[in-house]
Amino acid sequence: MLAPAHVGLILLGWALAGxxxxxATLAISQTAMSHGRRAALTLAAGITCGxxxxxxxxxxxxxxxxxxxxxxxxxxxYAGAGYLLFLALKSLKRAARPWLATAAATGRRRLFARxxxxxxxxxxxxxxxxxxxxxxxxxxxxxxxxxxxxxCLISVSATVFHGYALLFSIPRVARGYARLxxxxxxxxxxxxxxxxxxxxxxxxRV
Length: 206
Description:
- With 206 residues, the chain is mainly alpha-helical.
- The protein has one domain (23-200).
- The protein is 82% helix and 0% strand.
- It has ten helices and no strands.
- It has helices spanning 4-19, 23-35, 37-59, 62-68, 70-96, 108-120, 123-136, 143-168, 171-179, 181-200.
- The protein is globular and about 55 Å long.
- The relative contact order is 0.22.
């Protein structure tokens, strides 16, 4: 069984890692500023479910399977890099267009699916889950320990992702985005491109 102090440090590290700039937080903040709180919360819910899927997969041993079969990692890696590149081009295209005040947010189902896809196509996610289990769980830990830790970690992830949605949908922030929309979209496009490159050049380390 994990000591409470040890769990606290693990969860703090997990929160800091999840809240650091990356594809998920970039997508949530962009959606919040451009389409509002509801759209951002829907996207965050999809990202959380994608993270939970990798957490369950790692708990069941899929991360070990991926390490033993590099082609699985490679396939997901290329898909993830391609999807992030698509988001980069979409943001840059939007930055080049005049602002359309009547532009509607994407449907909620599509936003949820987009968020889930964003996380499911990041192969680093399942490896991160596998690594945190290996670090946090003591030798001989049982299934109850694994799934208790999973529930703690996914709760932290949900808090971080939905917190981003709430923070960046504050009216003052949204108004700032409206004034500087092209600059923001250009920056998001560049950052999505960098994230795509980082995933594309990632390598398995065994």
